[in-house]
Amino acid sequence: MKKILHIDGSEGEGGGQVLRTSLTMSMITGTPVRIENIRAKRSKPGLMRQHLACVHAAQAVSDAKVSGAKVGSTSVTFEPKGIKAGDYRFAVGTAGSTTLIFQTVLPALVMADKASSLTLVGGTHNMWAPSFDFIALAYLPLLKQIGIDVDVQLEKHGFYPQGAGQWKAVVKPASTIESLEVNERGVLIDREAMVTSSGVPDHVAERELNEIAKQCSWPEASLKRRSVRAMGSGNILSLRLHYEACSEVIESVGKVGLSAEKVANSAVKLLRRFLRAEVPVGEHLADQLLLPMVIGGGGVFRTVRPSQHTMTNRDVIHRFTDKRFKFTELAMDRWEIRQT
What we know:
Elements: E1 5-8, H1 16-29, E2 33-36, H2 49-62, E3 65-67, E4 76-79, E5 87-91, H3 98-110, E6 116-122, H4 132-145, E7 150-156, E8 165-171, E9 180-182, E10 188-198, H5 202-216, E11 223-227, E12 234-243, E13 247-253, H6 260-277, H7 283-295, E14 299-303, H8 308-320, E15 325-331, E16 334-339
Parallel strand pairs: 1-2, 5-6, 9-14, 10-11
Antiparallel strand pairs: 2-4, 3-4, 6-8, 7-8, 10-12, 12-13, 14-16, 15-16
C-alpha cells in the first residue's frame, strides 16, 4: 500500500480548492492522503456541508476508507480502494455548490470501466463557484474536444440560501483523452447577456440588461432574460461569448443590498479584462482545466494572469504526480499554461 501523503490545507489560497483537488488526485492516482488545516484561511475554518458532500461523493466513487468526515473538521484522512462506476445521488443539504461536487468526482468517473449517472441536489447558481450554465456552456464543450463526454440536464434551479436545485449528468468512460490545445479564440460566433431570476422584480433584470447595452453596446437581440421557478429568490447575470475554438461565460450573482447596476458593472469589468487580454480561456476556466489535462494527454492553453486558485491547484497536483505545469507570462495579463 502506498504511503499516506500529507497535504497542508492552509497553503496557497487556503480554502476548499486544496481539499477538492487532493480528493480528486487521491482517487485517480490511488494515493492515500491526509489533508490538515482544512480551509485554514477562511473566517470559518474546517469542513462546511458542501465540502463534506465532496468528501462523501469521492468516498462513494472510490470506495474509500475515510476518517474525520464531519462538519467543522479541520483534518480528513482519505484512502481510496478503486474507482467504480454507478448511479449516484449527491445532495449538499444546503445551497452549497453542486458543480464543485461534480468537478471533484468527474476525473475519476471518466477513468471508470463504464458510464455513470449522477443526480446532484443543492445550489446550481452560486457565488464563488461555477454555475450549471458555466459547466454546460464553457467547461464541458472544451472537455469534449479531448474525448471527455458528459451529458447534463438541469431540472431545477437552486439559489442561495434555499438551494434545492437539481441536475443530472451522465459521465461516459474515456478510452483515450487527447491533448488540449487552446491558444486562440477564433472568430466570435455569437454573444448574449442572459439574466436568470426567480422571485425577483422584473425591473431588476431590465436594469441589468440596460447597463450591459449601455456599457457594451450589445444589440437588443443579444439581451435575454428568463424567469424560473426555484425554492427561493435568486438572480444571476451571465455574459456568454461563443468563439470558434471555445466559449467564455462571465457571471455576476445578485444578492440583497447589491443594486442591479453593480451586478452588471461587475460582469462588465470581467468582460473587458477578458477581451483586452485576447486569450481564449478566462480566469476561472483556467484552474478547472488542469485536472482534465493531468488524466489525459496534457496540452497547452492561453489565459489571463493565473489566479491564486490556479496556482494552488497546480501546487497540489504536483504533490501527487511527476507531471508538471509551466506558467509563462507572454505579455501583460496574457499567460501560457503548458503541461511539461
